[in-house]
Specification:
70% helix; 431 residues; mainly alpha; disordered C terminus; single chain; globular
Length: 431
C-alpha cells in the first residue's frame, strides 16, 4: 500500500531543531539568548501592575523561569552538535569552581545555590548560544523583533507610570537595564539601515531611562551612541555642517546646563514625574553621588589586602557584605580570586576584549556588546548574574572561532564591514 496516498499535503511535518537550516538554527540561538529580557520585562510589568507580593510573586517568577527554560531546552541539541566540547567544558569548569568554593570557603556556602542557578541556568546558556552562532547575519531579524517587543513593553510601563496606573513607580533600576539592549540595538540598526525612526525609538528608550531608571544604563547608552557615531562618520560637507551645529548647541547647553536642567526638572515635576537621575544632574551629582559604593569599595579592598593570595571564593563579596555584591567587576574579581589569580583573570579578560575588537570585522556590532556587557559592571551588577556580560564573552568566542564577525547582509552600508574584491563584484564579503 502506498502510504503517500493517505498523506495530507497541506499538513506540514514537524521539523526538529537539528533538521532546521543553519540560518534558522542561528536565529533560534539568538532568540534563546535574549528571550529572557522580554520575559523579565513582562514580569516587571505584571508585578507592578497587580502589586504582587509573597506567594503570588513567587509563582510569577516560577512561570518566568519556565518560560525562559523552554527555548533553552529546545536549543540543547543544536548546542551539543555545534559546540559539544565548549558546552561540557564550560559547565565542567563552572561546576568545579563552585565545588572548590564550597569546600574551601564555608562562609560562601549559603549563597552558592542562588549564584549557581543564575550563572548556570541564566547566563551560561546565552554565552553558549552566541558562541555557537555560525552566521551572525541571520540573527538580526530576530533581534530586531525582540528589541521592538521590549520597547513596546517599556512604552506601556512608562505610560502606566506617568498616568498613575502604576502609582509610586518613579524609579526602577531593572526597567532601565531591560531597555538598554533595545536602545543600543536601535542605534546600531540606525547606522546600518539609515532609518530615522530607529533613532527616534532609541532616543525614546533613553528618555524612559532618564525619567524612570538609573544612571548606569543611561551612561552606557550615551557611550555607545557617541562611539558608534564616531565609527560611522563619513566626512563630507554635510557631516561637517552637522557637527558644527551640534558643537554650537552643545556649548550653549554646557554654559547654561544648570538653568536648563532646573527648568526641565520642574516641568516634569509639575507633570507628576519625579526623576532621580534628573535630580542628580540638576544638583551636579550625576557622577559624584556614589550611593554608598565608596564604602563598599573601601571595605572590600581592605578585605582583599587581608587575604591577597586566594581571595574569598566565588561570591566572596556576598559573604563579606551579607548578600550584597561588590558593584564593580574588578573589585569583585579580586575579592573572589585574590590579587594573584584575580590579576591573571583581569589581564586575560582585557586582552580578550582588545583582541576581539581588533579582530572583529564588524566593530560596530562588537562595540554594542562591549558597551552593554562591560560598562554597567563598572558601577553595578555582578559577573555571576549579568547575562549581557556573558553574551559579550559568547561573541568573543564566536569571533575567535570564525576569525572575524561576518559582514552585514549584502547592500547594507556598514563601516568596517565592507570588503570589496573583484571576485565578488564589489559586494560585501560574507565569510
Amino acid at each position: 500500500m502506498n502510504v503517500a496516498l493517505f498523506e495530507n499535503p497541506r499538513v506540514k511535518k514537524i521539523a526538529f531543531p537539528l533538521q532546521w537550516t543553519d540560518d534558522r538554527q542561528d536565529a533560534f540561538l539568538a532568540f534563546t539568548a535574549l528571550f529572557q529580557f522580554v520575559v523579565l520585562m513582562v514580569q516587571l510589568f505584571v508585578l507592578h501592575l497587580f502589586r504582587l507580593s509573597g506567594t503570588a510573586q513567587s509563582i510569577l517568577r516560577l512561570f518566568a523561569i519556565a518560560a525562559c527554560a523552554v527555548p533553552i531546552v529546545v536549543a540543547l541539541p543544536i548546542l551539543w552538535k555545534r559546540r559539544a566540547l565548549l558546552f561540557f567544558g564550560t559547565y565542567g569548569v563552572a561546576g568545579l569552581l563552585f565545588l572548590l568554593t564550597a569546600v574551601f570557603f564555608p562562609p560562601v556556602r549559603p549563597y552558592l545555590i542562588s549564584l549557581a542557578f543564575e550563572l548556570l541556568c541564566m547566563c551560561l546558556p546565552g554565552f553558549l548560544c552566541f558562541a555557537s552562532i555560525r552566521n551572525m547575519e541571520a540573527v538580526h531579524p530576530v533581534l530586531l523583533k525582540l528589541a521592538f517587543a521590549n520597547f513596546l513593553l517599556g512604552v506601556l510601563f512608562a505610560l502606566f507610570s506617568f498616568t498613575g496606573i502604576l502609582p509610586g513607580e518613579s524609579y526602577s533600576m531593572s526597567f532601565s537595564y531591560y531597555l538598554l539592549f533595545p536602545a543600543c540595538y536601535f542605534v546600531y540598526r540606525f547606522h546600518t539601515d539609515r532609518k530615522k525612526r530607529l533613532l527616534v525609538f532609541a532616543l525614546l528608550c533613553a528618555a524612559f531611562m532618564l525619567l524612570l531608571g538609573s544612571r548606569g544604563p543611561l551612561v552606557t547608552f550615551a557611550a555607545y551612541l557617541v562611539l558608534s557615531t564616531a565609527f560611522s562618520l563619513k566626512f563630507n560637507k554635510r557631516t561637517v555642517v552637522t557637527l558644527a551645529v551640534l558643537l554650537a548647541v552643545g556649548i550653549v547647553c554646557l554654559i547654561f546646563y544648570r538653568q536648563i536642567l532646573a527648568a526641565v526638572y520642574e516641568i516634569f515635576r509639575m507633570l507628576g514625574i519625579e526623576s532621580r537621575t534628573l535630580l542628580l544632574m540638576k544638583e551636579g551629582e550625576l557622577f559624584t553621588h556614589d550611593s554608598g559604593r565608596g564604602n563598599i569599595y573601601t571595605l572590600l579592598i581592605r578585605k582583599i589586602l587581608e587575604q591577597p593570595l586566594f581571595g574569598y571564593g566565588i561570591g566572596g563579596d556576598r559573604a563579606l557584605r551579607g548578600g550584597s555584591y561588590a558593584h564593580n567587576l574588578f573589585v569583585e574579581l579580586f575579592t573572589d580570586f585574590g590579587l594573584v589569580l584575580g590579576s591573571v583573570v583581569v589581564v586575560f579578560l582585557l586582552g580578550l576584549l582588545l583582541r576581539c575588537f581588533w579582530t572583529a570585522k564588524n566593530r560596530l556590532w562588537f562595540l554594542l556588546w562591549g558597551c552593554v556587557g562591560f560598562i554597567p559592571l563598572m558601577v553595578s551588577g555582578s559577573y555571576l548574574s549579568e547575562a549581557n556580560f556573558w553574551l559579550l564573552l559568547g561573541l568573543c568566542a564566536h569571533i575567535l572561532r570564525a576569525g572575524k564577525v561576518p559582514a552585514f547582509e549584502k547592500g547594507r552600508r556598514f563601516p568596517h564591514a565592507e570588503e570589496k574584491s573583484a571576485d565578488h563584484h564589489g559586494t560585501v564579503s560574507a565569510n
